[in-house]
C-alpha cells in the first residue's frame, strides 16, 4: 500500500480525493480551548469517548441589524477535518498542559485519533442562511466531535460575518459599481487580512489590494499609488528618461513631460475650462507623468494630494491627453478625501468638457474611484446626494466588521446514542432544537424563498404542491400553512468519513462567489433592505414542534412552592 493510499484511508477519504491542509498553518488540532481536552479526557476516563454524538453549528441572530447572513468557511473546515491528526510534539504539549494525574492511555488514544469516523453535513458555502438552522451537522464519536468545536466555530464565525458585511456593501453600492477591498493594513493581523480578502471577494467584491490573497486564492488585484508617491517629487527635472513609445510601437515621444505641459496649457486656455484653475502644482504633474511613463496602459492617479479641482484633475487630464496622443487610454482617478459626491460630479463635468473641447472619444467616461473610510452608511448617503463614482475602495469598516464584532456561532449537542438532547435556558432564544434534523427551503410561486423548515431526521420530505404546516419553534401562535412550488434540501454530506455515502465536491472560490450573488438576487427585496427589513421565517414541522416541547417539559425540573 502506498503512502498516498494510507493517507486516504487515514483521512476516511474512501473516494480517493485527498484534501489539502488548512490555508493557515496555525489551524491545527491544538487550535482549540483547553476545556475541549479536559472533556475529552473525562469522556475517555468514563469509557464514553466513542459514543456516537450529533452536534449542530448555527447562529442565533443575523448581524448588522439585517435579516440575512451569508455562510462561509466550509472549505477551511473540511481541510481541517481531512487532516486532523496530532503530532508527537503536540501530544507532549497536551500532556504538559493537563494535570499529572491523566493516564498514559489517553495520550495513546490521541496518537491514533483522526476524523475517519466523523461525518459532516453542511449547507453549501456561499448560501444565504438564517438563525437556528444548522450550518453544519457533525456526527461522530463525542470526544473527537468535541475537539472540533472551537476550530469549526472559529473558521465559520468571522468568515460568515465578513462575507455578509461585503454582501451588504455590494447591495447598497449596486450591481454596476466596482468594489475594491483595501483593508489589509487595518485588518486584525495577517490572518484577519488574508481571510478578509478571500471572503469579501466571496461576498461580491471585485478585487483586492492584498497581493498574498491574490496569489493564494486567484482574486483579481487592483492598486495605484499613494500620496507619498506624489509628494516624493519636487520638480519635473527629476524625471531622467522622458521618452515613451506609442501603443502600436510605430513612433516614439522623446519628452512626455513637455507634451503633458503643452496639454496643460491648452486646457487652461480652452474656452470651456478657462478660469476654473490657474497654475497647478508642478511636482504633482511630475509625479503623474513619471507614473504614466511606468504604467502607460493602466494610468490611474490619486488627485487629492494638493487640491483636487485646481491641480489634481487638470494635471491628470494633461497627462491622460498626452498618453492619448500616443494611443494609450488612461484608466481614471482616485479621490481619497473631501466631499466625494461633489468632487466626483465636478470631475465628471471636467472630463466631459475635455471630450467635447478636444474631441477625445470616451474621455468623459473616465473612471472615478472613491476611498477614505467608506462604509454602508457613506455609500447610502452618496446615493442619496447624487454622485459620479464608478468604483469604491473600502477598507477599515469592511474588514474589521466595525458595526458588529462577531456573529455568535454556537455548537450544541442535539443527540447522543440516538437519544435527542436539549439545552434549556430562561432566555428562549438560547434553547436548542433537539435531535438529528433535516432542513429544507420552501419557495413560493414567484420564485422567492418563503420559509426554512426543520424536520426530524425520519420525517418524510416536504413535497412540491403539498400543503405543510410550518410552526415557530417556541411561539405556539406563530404558524402558517405553505404550499411550496420548489423544495430545496439544505444539508448535504461534505465529509463521509469511512462510510460509503456520496460526498459533495468543494467548488472553486469563484463558483462559491457566483452562488452567493445568485442567492442574494433570489431573495425577496424586503428581506434585504437596510432599514426595517422583514424577518425571514424559520420554522419546524408540527411533529418536531411537539417533540421539542415534550422534551422541554421532560427535562425541565418542576419547581416546588412552600
Automatic annotation (TrEMBL):
Q: How is it modified after translation?
A: Transiently phosphorylated on a His residue during the reaction cycle. Phosphorylation strongly increases the affinity for substrates and increases the rate of nicotinate D-ribonucleotide production. Dephosphorylation regenerates the low-affinity form of the enzyme, leading to product release.
Give, as in the UniProt entry, the pathway in which the protein acts.
Cofactor biosynthesis; NAD(+) biosynthesis; nicotinate D-ribonucleotide from nicotinate: step 1/1
Taxonomic superkingdom: Eukaryota
Do you know which InterPro entries this protein is assigned to?
A: Aldolase_TIM, NAPRTase_C, NAPRTase_N, Nic_PRibTrfase-Fam, Nic_PRibTrfase_pncB, Nicotinate_pribotase-like_C
Domain annotation Nicotinate phosphoribosyltransferase N-terminal: ranges: 30-157
Q: Which UniProt keywords apply?
A: Glycosyltransferase, Ligase, Magnesium, Manganese, Metal-binding, Phosphoprotein, Pyridine nucleotide biosynthesis, Transferase
Q: Which GO terms describe its biological process?
A: NAD+ biosynthetic process via the salvage pathway
Task: State the EC number(s).
Answer: 6.3.4.21
Q: Which cofactor does it need?
A: Mg(2+); Mn(2+)
Q: Where is the Nicotinate phosphoribosyltransferase C-terminal domain?
A: 436-547
Q: Which reaction does it catalyse?
A: 5-phospho-alpha-D-ribose 1-diphosphate + nicotinate + ATP + H2O = nicotinate beta-D-ribonucleotide + ADP + phosphate + diphosphate
GO CC annotations on file: cytosol
In terms of Pfam families, this protein maps to:
NAPRTase_C, NAPRTase_N
State one molecular function term (GO): nicotinate phosphoribosyltransferase activity
PANTHER family linked to this entry: NICOTINATE PHOSPHORIBOSYLTRANSFERASE
Family the UniProt entry places it in: Belongs to the NAPRTase family.
Q: Which NCBIfam families match?
A: NAPRTase_put
Protein purpose: Catalyzes the first step in the biosynthesis of NAD from nicotinic acid, the ATP-dependent synthesis of beta-nicotinate D-ribonucleotide from nicotinate and 5-phospho-D-ribose 1-phosphate. Helps prevent cellular oxidative stress via its role in NAD biosynthesis.
Q: What is this protein called?
A: Nicotinate phosphoribosyltransferase
Amino acid at each position: 500500500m502506498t503512502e498516498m493510499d494510507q493517507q486516504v484511508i487515514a483521512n476516511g477519504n474512501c473516494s480517493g480525493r485527498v484534501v489539502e491542509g488548512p490555508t493557515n498553518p496555525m489551524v491545527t488540532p491544538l487550535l482549540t480551548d483547553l476545556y475541549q481536552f479536559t472533556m475529552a479526557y473525562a469522556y475517555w476516563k468514563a469509557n464514553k469517548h466513542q459514543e456516537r454524538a450529533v452536534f449542530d453549528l448555527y447562529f442565533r441572530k443575523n448581524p448588522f441589524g439585517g435579516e440575512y447572513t451569508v455562510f462561509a468557511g466550509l472549505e477551511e473546515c473540511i481541510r481541517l477535518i481531512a487532516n486532523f491528526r496530532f503530532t508527537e510534539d503536540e501530544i507532549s504539549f497536551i500532556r504538559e498542559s493537563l494535570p499529572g494525574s491523566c493516564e498514559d492511555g489517553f495520550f495513546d488514544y490521541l496518537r491514533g485519533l483522526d476524523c475517519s469516523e466523523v461525518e459532516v453535513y453542511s449547507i453549501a458555502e456561499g448560501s444565504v442562511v438564517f438563525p437556528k438552522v444548522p450550518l453544519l451537522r457533525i456526527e461522530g464519536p463525542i470526544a473527537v466531535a468535541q475537539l472540533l468545536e472551537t476550530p469549526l466555530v472559529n473558521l465559520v464565525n468571522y468568515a460568515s460575518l465578513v462575507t455578509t458585511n461585503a454582501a451588504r456593501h455590494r447591495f447598497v453600492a449596486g450591481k454596476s459599481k466596482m468594489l475594491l477591498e483595501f483593508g489589509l493594513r487595518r485588518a486584525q493581523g495577517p490572518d484577519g487580512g488574508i481571510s478578509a480578502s478571500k471572503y469579501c471577494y466571496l461576498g461580491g467584491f471585485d478585487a483586492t489590494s492584498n497581493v498574498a490573497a491574490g496569489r493564494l486564492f486567484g482574486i483579481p488585484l487592483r492598486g495605484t499609488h499613494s500620496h507619498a508617491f506624489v509628494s516624493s517629487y519636487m520638480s519635473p527635472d527629476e524625471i531622467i528618461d522622458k521618452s515613451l513609445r506609442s501603443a502600436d510601437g510605430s513612433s516614439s515621444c522623446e519628452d512626455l513631460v513637455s507634451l503633458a505641459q503643452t496639454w496643460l496649457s491648452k486646457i487652461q486656455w480652452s474656452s470651456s475650462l478657462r478660469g476654473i484653475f490657474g497654475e497647478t502644482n508642478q511636482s504633482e504633474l511630475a509625479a503623474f507623468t513619471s507614473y504614466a511613463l511606468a504604467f502607460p496602459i493602466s494610468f490611474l492617479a490619486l488627485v487629492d494630494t494638493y487640491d483636487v479641482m485646481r491641480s489634481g484633475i487638470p494635471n491628470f487630464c494633461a497627462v491622460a491627453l498626452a498618453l492619448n496622443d500616443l494611443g494609450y487610454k488612461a484608466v481614471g482617478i482616485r479621490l481619497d478625501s473631501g466631499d466625494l459626491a461633489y468632487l466626483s460630479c465636478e470631475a465628471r463635468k471636467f472630463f466631459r468638457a475635455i471630450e467635447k473641447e478636444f474631441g477625445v472619444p470616451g474621455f468623459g467616461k473616465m473612471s472615478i474611484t472613491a476611498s477614505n473610510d467608506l462604509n454602508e452608511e457613506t455609500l447610502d448617503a452618496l446615493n442619496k446626494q447624487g454622485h459620479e463614482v464608478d468604483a469604491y475602495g473600502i477598507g477599515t469598516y469592511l474588514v474589521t466588521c466595525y458595526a458588529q464584532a462577531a456573529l455568535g456561532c454556537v455548537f450544541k449537542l442535539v443527540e447522543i446514542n440516538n437519544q435527542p438532547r436539549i439545552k434549556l435556558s430562561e432566555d428562549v432564544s438560547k434553547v436548542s432544537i433537539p435531535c438529528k434534523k433535516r432542513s429544507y427551503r420552501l419557495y413560493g410561486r414567484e420564485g422567492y424563498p418563503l420559509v426554512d423548515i426543520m424536520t426530524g431526521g425520519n420525517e418524510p420530505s416536504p413535497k412540491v404542491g403539498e400543503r405543510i404546516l410550518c410552526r415557530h419553534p417556541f411561539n405556539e401562535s406563530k404558524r402558517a400553512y405553505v404550499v411550496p412550488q420548489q423544495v430545496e434540501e439544505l444539508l448535504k454530506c461534505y465529509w463521509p468519513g469511512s462510510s460509503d455515502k456520496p460526498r459533495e465536491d468543494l467548488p472553486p472560490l469563484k463558483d462559491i462567489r457566483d452562488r452567493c450573488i445568485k442567492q442574494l438576487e433570489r431573495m425577496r427585496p424586503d428581506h434585504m433592505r437596510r432599514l426595517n427589513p422583514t424577518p425571514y421565517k424559520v420554522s419546524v414541522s408540527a411533529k418536531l414542534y411537539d417533540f421539542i416541547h415534550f422534551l422541554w417539559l421532560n427535562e425541565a425540573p418542576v419547581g416546588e412552592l412552600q
